[in-house]
């Protein structure tokens, strides 16, 4: 079981939390949402064998909200296979919401949850 802290942007009432919870309930592996409507701070529990953080993030977005995140953009020169391997490794790091990239453009974009990891921690 994984517990992740997030700050959900746009939450200001119990109905907001209810709406997010309804959307998260559709994610396989989601277990529990605890959120403070006055601050937007939340703790989400999910089974990491069934869900990944990007699934949680997308469900929150589909509910009409967003999360506080840090975007890291890199240029990485590698072939397609090396890039795919790197992205899989990044996506397994606790606090990494999602990573994507194209070997043709050499661009990689990583979304981080700043309540869980900083870009300095990612690269250490």
TrEMBL record:
InterPro entries: HMA_dom, HMA_dom_sf. Gene3D superfamilies: 3.30.70.100. Signal peptide: none annotated. PROSITE patterns: HMA_2. Residues 2-68 form the HMA domain. One of its GO terms (molecular function) is metal ion binding. It comes from the Archaea. This is Copper chaperone. It comes from Fervidicoccus fontis.
